[in-house]
Amino acid sequence: MSKAIVVFSGGQDSTTCVIQALSQYDEVHGITFDYGQRHRQEIEVAQQLAKQLGLTSHKVLDVGLLNELAISALTRDNIPVSNTLMDNGLPNTFVPGRNILFLTLAGIYAYQLGADAVITGVCETDFSGYPDCRNDFIKAMEQALVQGMDRPLALITPLMWLNKAETWALADKYGQLDLVRNHTLTCYNGIIGEGCHECPACKLRARGLHDYLADKETVMQALEQKCNHA
Predict the structure, then answer these.
(1) pLDDT tens readout for residues 85-113
(2) Which residues sit opposite 58 in a β-bridge?
(3) What is the enclosing helix (H) or strand (E) of 33?
(4) With contact defined as beta carbons under 8 Å apart, do 90 and 131 qualify?
């Protein structure tokens, strides 16, 4: 029996990964992390979507220690979300160590459940510039988890080489475009669906949706080509 763990935030990307995984695995288990994030409504959204989509199980894990250690606009209400890059060239919404911690804990959970795959919606093609969303990082984490737990484990990144328009196309391919469009939470200010229209996450999401709706056929063809060569 095939089993997968999906790192599930309730946003566009991770929800699309869940939708695809449900067609590929016998069991799909979601894991959501509560780290005191600014947009913590995403936890309730993930819980609702987990029930609606029929995940085998859904765990919410308290990792509040990350909030204490990682200073970011997503972990401090007194730091406004900004489009301006910090002195180190990264967005102020970057939470240092977040994906290192999330993937480590998801890997431990996979070990306990006997799952051979952890799925995460990170992307290097059309993203916010976070270093822990890059393919090189994922491959390094995969090797560390395999070595550290001495068992096979694949870190699967279905969106790694997709742009945002193609991610929308992937949701549409599985007949869930409206669900992802209206019931996921990507907005850093905690507004479900189309969001606040102002934060970087909302702008990236909206631009991708516009590009997909403007030329569905071309975007879907590009998606299929990438999927066939994956």
Answers:
(1) 666 667 767 777 889 999 999 999 999 99
(2) 30
(3) strand 27-34
(4) yes
Average pLDDT over residues 153-180: 97
Give dist(CA 207, CA 225) in Å, integer.
22
Instruction: Give which of 28, 54, 19 is closest to 118, Cα–Cα.
Output: 28
Residues 119-137: pLDDT tens digits? Answer: 999 998 866 678 889 999 9
Instruction: Provide the β-strand partners of residue 32.
Output: 60
CA distance 37 to 57: 23
| Range in 27-31, 143-147, 188-192 the model is least confident about | 188-192
pLDDT value of position 97: 80
Q: What is the pLDDT of residues 35-88, one digit of tens each?
A: 777 678 889 999 999 999 999 999 999 987 777 666 666 666 766 776 666 666
Let me know: does 127 contact 186? Beta carbons within 8 Å.
no
Instruction: Transcribe 56-83 into DSSP letters.
Output: SEEEEEE-THHHHH--STTT-TTS---S
Of 178, 162, 161, 179, the C-alpha closest to 213 is 178
Instruction: Give me the amino acid identity at 21.
Output: A
- How many helices (H) and strands (E) would you count in the chain? 9, 5
Closest C-alpha among 92, 37, 81, 27 to residue 60: 37
